[in-house]
Amino acid sequence: MEHKVKKVVLAYSGGLDTSVILRWLQNTYNCEVVTFTADLGQGEELEPARKKAEMFGIKQIFIEDLRETFVKDFVFPMFRANALYEGQYLLGTSIARPLIAQRQIEIAEMVGADAVAHGATGKGNDQVRFELGYYALNPNIRVIAPWREWDLTSRTKLIEYAETNQIPITKDKRGEAPFSVDANLLHSSSEGKLLEDPAIGPDEIVYQRTISPEAAPDVATEISIDFLHGDAVGLNGEALSPATILTRLNEYGKANGIGRLDLVENRFVGMKSRGVYETPGGTILLAAHRGIESITLDREAGHLKDSIMPRYAELIYNGFWFSPERRMLQALIDTSQASVTGRVMLKLYKGNVIVTGRESPHSLYNTRMVTFEDDAGAYNQQDAAGFIKLNALRLRLGASIGRRGGAL
Amino acid sequence: MEHKVKKVVLAYSGGLDTSVILRWLQNTYNCEVVTFTADLGQGEELEPARKKAEMFGIKQIFIEDLRETFVKDFVFPMFRANALYEGQYLLGTSIARPLIAQRQIEIAEMVGADAVAHGATGKGNDQVRFELGYYALNPNIRVIAPWREWDLTSRTKLIEYAETNQIPITKDKRGEAPFSVDANLLHSSSEGKLLEDPAIGPDEIVYQRTISPEAAPDVATEISIDFLHGDAVGLNGEALSPATILTRLNEYGKANGIGRLDLVENRFVGMKSRGVYETPGGTILLAAHRGIESITLDREAGHLKDSIMPRYAELIYNGFWFSPERRMLQALIDTSQASVTGRVMLKLYKGNVIVTGRESPHSLYNTRMVTFEDDAGAYNQQDAAGFIKLNALRLRLGASIGRRGGAL
Amino acid sequence: MEHKVKKVVLAYSGGLDTSVILRWLQNTYNCEVVTFTADLGQGEELEPARKKAEMFGIKQIFIEDLRETFVKDFVFPMFRANALYEGQYLLGTSIARPLIAQRQIEIAEMVGADAVAHGATGKGNDQVRFELGYYALNPNIRVIAPWREWDLTSRTKLIEYAETNQIPITKDKRGEAPFSVDANLLHSSSEGKLLEDPAIGPDEIVYQRTISPEAAPDVATEISIDFLHGDAVGLNGEALSPATILTRLNEYGKANGIGRLDLVENRFVGMKSRGVYETPGGTILLAAHRGIESITLDREAGHLKDSIMPRYAELIYNGFWFSPERRMLQALIDTSQASVTGRVMLKLYKGNVIVTGRESPHSLYNTRMVTFEDDAGAYNQQDAAGFIKLNALRLRLGASIGRRGGAL
Amino acid sequence: MEHKVKKVVLAYSGGLDTSVILRWLQNTYNCEVVTFTADLGQGEELEPARKKAEMFGIKQIFIEDLRETFVKDFVFPMFRANALYEGQYLLGTSIARPLIAQRQIEIAEMVGADAVAHGATGKGNDQVRFELGYYALNPNIRVIAPWREWDLTSRTKLIEYAETNQIPITKDKRGEAPFSVDANLLHSSSEGKLLEDPAIGPDEIVYQRTISPEAAPDVATEISIDFLHGDAVGLNGEALSPATILTRLNEYGKANGIGRLDLVENRFVGMKSRGVYETPGGTILLAAHRGIESITLDREAGHLKDSIMPRYAELIYNGFWFSPERRMLQALIDTSQASVTGRVMLKLYKGNVIVTGRESPHSLYNTRMVTFEDDAGAYNQQDAAGFIKLNALRLRLGASIGRRGGAL
């Protein structure tokens, strides 16, 4: 132990694992524990966490509904970038960690705690995301990562510790879970055990947030989403708060079998892992956002966004939300969204999200310009000849000295 | 007219438009016309083109089946990059143009022609793609783009010209087509007229290559694709040629309502346009390729590929296939595919392409490394502490002088 | 002529070429000409331009000192990016064009002109820079580029036209200039004729703004520059305006033989050209800005800036200052400069700019962290072991299946 | 200790520090030590290292002259990229580490060693570079980094250990060195102690490889360098081996005060550090390589290279030479160099490297195209009008709906 810990703010779910951590912190560090439980839309009751914390003698218990903040200040900024990690993953877990870290640090400063603790393991990305957030917000905070410190290296030992320490164990937690789950308003992720062989598709029981495309209705659902400066602000013509919109989109997505992803991805800590993700509302939102951008965003603005997107997504995946480089990229992205305003119509059908229309007062789409019909002089086809000639000039100069076909 | 044209190689489909062009070239330039008609999998008979050409008195008629070359040397290299233009478009039209341009130039050199001609309009991307290809391969070639030169600026005038010049007009070509179509083995694209309002979804009649997800079977189809060095080499365990694989994947995709895209995109010539694309086999192939890469490609190799992909896709879209920069990027991409070998299992269902398994002799996925179970020392969780500490160091140094949370 | 021109705002230097253009506009378009002459620090008297314009019967003559605007709103934002085109060129000509274009459009709107005109040739970049600026600021403006329109294709014809039209010709303009010059407060560029062979170094007579390193003093000059949020605000401890700082730095640079560059570069219009540039003050400023960034900018912030810099420089070179993508990149860059504040000490000696010291209240340089001496626990060397282990993990996994040394 | 070490290959310089390490390895691990001493052009006799190693009872002593390999396979590939870390640093130390690591692993496999050891400290980049190289080449190798393991945390303790263990200490090593030096054929770097305050310029005694610009001759030296496929192959018309060329360029650079750099840089391990570098020959080589590229490399090829260069340089700095991503980027870079062949003339004068001429059989510079004179129709100025119009189209469309000047 580097130095004595006096008071630690624990990210506490109320479940078995973080309850063991809570007791272990008390036992090991002989310190006061402050619990922090956040509603990020994971779909669990929070009040049981209070009861349990009280049972452990916790005096300072923080239980907060952060859903609106989560969507408004984390999910939406990220969606402005159309962020996809490794071309596919909507970053549902990654984007929640910085908010939890931020509140833990704020609470630590409020209650005079000198440490924070989390329940992420030593093999995953979440430990990195939590701790980079902690350190970026408070460089002197002491971080406790029990999974990297203790010797409870098997489920059996954990259960034993729980029993020895009078921690209640619900029946379903006694055996090993067939896979591990993380959830919030944006998504649910499942990984481990049952899912460890990437050659075998996930069993239907893995899915928590969506019905299967097969089970979805045979008739499509049609919706519209309104955007203002790149953010969703309304659904089917009704203005709604950020978290409400995402909640409703989740319902639409769930019902229509939308947003499942079975992925082998690369962790920041170095190995590949397999995750099964469900992002019903997010999947719809991404399609819609691309749809509204398609008519409102300038070509080069869009291409520039696309070119930096992989790096932006990587930063969030790796835990660098609170970093200068993420803030710089965000400034670039946010600048681009000034006119990303309008309505997108979508059809949801058995796993498909189909953009059926887009309209905007700021549309750059110009029928007169593009029409095959007479365009009344909007576009001079002769210009194309010169445009091509000069774009070809360097290639012709190359070819004329023997470098044909773009040979170097 | 810059100088007299003696002999021109025309990209000739046999349809009304290129027949009018053929005659117009004869009339206007008083030159010999050589026709070149390629089978790129557009799904039309080629022999009628020969008949028609003969009818125009053409002496040198080239009709070639280029499907294998098209898939092997153009489509597959592009798919190694997971190329998507503007995040969505699989570049089906763009990738065919360089091959046509290349053959036209080769034929021109073979027959001693001093010019080439194409039937692309002055508002689109294809004129650019053809002509950049021509010039890169032969810097001195004379390029004739009738749509930019003549005064047949309306359908009526075109029909009149055809009638005046004894060009047969099939009944369905007399009226204006409700939209314009381009097709090859990779895709079919539709645009114009009926599709000009991006607020309104495309009518079902637009689709040529796919049935709708709604019309697709209620039971999923399961297939597997084998990859070798990044290219598909087998289907359901059977080794097949490139064009055969793509043909079969198109059948699977078509039957399962896969690969439709309704997009507003940005043209290189400067305006936005709306296209409806059908890429049934390509959509399956992309998912499968990402699947096999997910277990065989190193993380940073994959991220590097992702970071240059938008530029690579843009180059192909803009017509720079035969350019030094495309060749350089291709060298980077091809280098990455050395071990992208193995099998991907997929489920096709009503518009969905779902990867259900991947396996490879070169898999970098290591169960022992990632398992929640005891990993027998494969991974030392203590390493993560140091890893995080040093990744956080610069953020902590910043925070310690007042730049909290990554403030700059 | 597309339509009749009523009133045109001409970027007018007062020299022979733009005087011929002035008269040619009057003769050709039979329109009113408004002259606009700006002092961007080119080092020429402006009042003669007024005299001349009056002589041509011009009624609305705009002569403006834009030096402060030029440096504050164009040069300084660009220097925040450390912009270098093709690794070397400080973009002295490129950065001046947007300001001229902007003022021409503002004046056109003020005086009710329907057209603007410039004196750039049809082979260079400047025509592009002017016209992209015009169109971005006023999409309906009529642009007249006499060099692309008239038939004065040789010096002889131009002189003849001048004589025929009573345009006074100073003796030194009668013969052909041995090279062509553009100058402003940031730089002087020379190109053409005498300089056309890139195998031969420029003659000393080409240089206008600098003495040679050989001719510079044998004793170094020491100066300091103060920065605030990335911009130079003081020199040798004295607070000065942007244009004053650049003027003084030019004097320092000139006297010490600093800022010469003999370059073959690639023009946007497609060919290579050879330019000789002198950017005395800018060369010092770049070194100083890199110096202050080196202690105040976060590593990843700096690397992100470096990674987008080539694209940013290319945009400015190509004339896209007034574009969405330049504005987005500027937002990213400006965000990065919040703490780029402090002082840089430099030594100037015979062509060398040597940073000799940097200090800042926001310095991220931490002696305790970096020292070889005992650091009192600031840095735990054990962390490096874990850091390396996890950074190596993917490489080890690759090597363990036969991909040694990063083989793919 | 994880497991018993039997035989370790130590990167051994023969100096005090690595001699202490040698003895410490024998004492601590009770293992056989194999020494490896490489001549990378650091300018020290190697035979004394053999004597010393024998004195320690070493049986297997490897002393190798790797200068040609170093320049040919490491320095030259890197210079093809014009690599500069953080815009300025020529990566002299970084590029030497992978070669040492490679040979250590090869020797370990030859002699049946199970471990390797190096003398880099726990705060620097070199430990990372060595160890990433080791692991990438042999995933199972045991790595010993004494500076991170032992308790010789001060110079005094090190000296005591040397005395106790009968390790000879030359007089000058008894006191603390005022700074620490690393050198090879490409450069010399100095850092630490005397240099720790970045506000104060380095004392002249720091410089090892160059005389000062002030001390350099008053008359310029003129040289020429011949390139073939991007690599230097001749000097002043004489064909020479890679190492010979670099050696001669070092002499030219040294004599003319060229290649000094005083830099605050960002280490991969997280903190800023200050280094003073001397890269006399490399500085000349970079200027020359840019010079030959300027006439032989296609514009977009060059811009693509420039855009990936910062990442390439970062990879080398961070120690990822043996990585898939470096190999991919190298493939891109090497592809670009096919025609980078020709001669560059340079003038060296008191710290300045001035390109005075370039010529190549593959030059893309075309006087006829660029001339202000009559170009005989090589370039049609009318093309520029169309080129600009279409490049402006999107900006005009934006401006026409109120987004003037590239507003978003």
UniProtKB/TrEMBL annotation, chains A, B, C, D:
EC number: 6.3.4.5
Subcellular location: Cytoplasm
Binding residues annotated for L-aspartate, in chain numbering: T121, N125, D126
Domain Arginosuccinate synthase-like N-terminal, chain residue ranges per copy: 7-168
Keyword line: Amino-acid biosynthesis, Arginine biosynthesis, ATP-binding, Cytoplasm, Ligase, Nucleotide-binding
Gene Ontology process terms (BP): argininosuccinate metabolic process; L-arginine biosynthetic process; urea cycle
Record-level GO cellular component terms: cytoplasm
Annotated ranges, domain Arginosuccinate synthase C-terminal: 179-396
Positions with a binding annotation for ATP: A11, Y12, S13, G14, G15, L16, D17, T18, S19, A38, G119
Binding site for L-citrulline: Y89, S94, N125, R129, S180, S189, E265, Y277
Reaction catalysed by this enzyme: L-citrulline + L-aspartate + ATP = 2-(N(omega)-L-arginino)succinate + AMP + diphosphate + H(+)
Gene3D superfamilies: Argininosuccinate synthetase, chain A, domain 2, HUPs, Single helix bin
Enzyme class label: ligase
Pathway it works in: Amino-acid biosynthesis; L-arginine biosynthesis; L-arginine from L-ornithine and carbamoyl phosphate: step 2/3
Keyword Cytoplasm: yes
GO MF assignments: argininosuccinate synthase activity; ATP binding
PANTHER family, A to Z: ARGININOSUCCINATE SYNTHASE (PTHR11587:SF2)
HAMAP family with a match to the protein in the record: Arg_succ_synth_type1 (MF_00005)
Family: Belongs to the argininosuccinate synthase family. Type 1 subfamily.
Quaternary assembly: Homotetramer.
Name of protein: Argininosuccinate synthase
